[in-house]
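Researcher: Please predict.
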Amino acid sequence: MTTTSAKLLKLALPLIKTHGFTREALSMSVLSLPTLPAHPLPDASVTALFGQGDDACRTLVHAWLDDATRRMKEEAVENMGMGDVLKARLKSNEPVLEHLPEAFALLASSSSLLVPLLPVDPAPIIKHAVQVSNQACWIAHSDARELSWYTRRASISAIYLAAELHQLTSPKIVPEFLDSLLENAEHAGKALDETALFASYIWKSWRGIVRSSGVLV
């Protein structure tokens, strides 16, 4: 990625709250440069810098996720427990919560197939949860032995994913929901049954994407 692309991606992050994970947010990012340009980036420039079609939007999603993971470490305080670390990460979702279903849909879909036939691939979402748990375990258990750390990471990945999916529909009670999972690991397996909820959000988000492109589904 070029220096220009990286700089504009960083400037686009605050725009996600109002513009979503969209090419428009990337286009508008140029207006935040110190030397104010007269117009947003033309679509051809967005493509050249960030990728074609929804690939540009995926680039923005990955940039936002990477930034949120980075801030977990930067904003951590001494002696934070696992619950506090994960709650802080979930709180960072709040400004863009309404756009997360679309972000997950973008990550879990393939750009190589026609939109009506897109399969749902949970691997990118699982990778995201693993990255969060990786950072959380280092913050909360930096002195853990290597084997126990990897075991703990797998459990925290599942718990965080369940809590994040729950946050999409019940954001006000997600702290209590997370606490219940951390206190009783048996609940985590049941909570992961919310993958059906995840699939529903994927479908709803893609319907919005398809309709906005002028294709009737």
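Model: Confidence is low (pLDDT under 50) at residues 113-117, 213-217.
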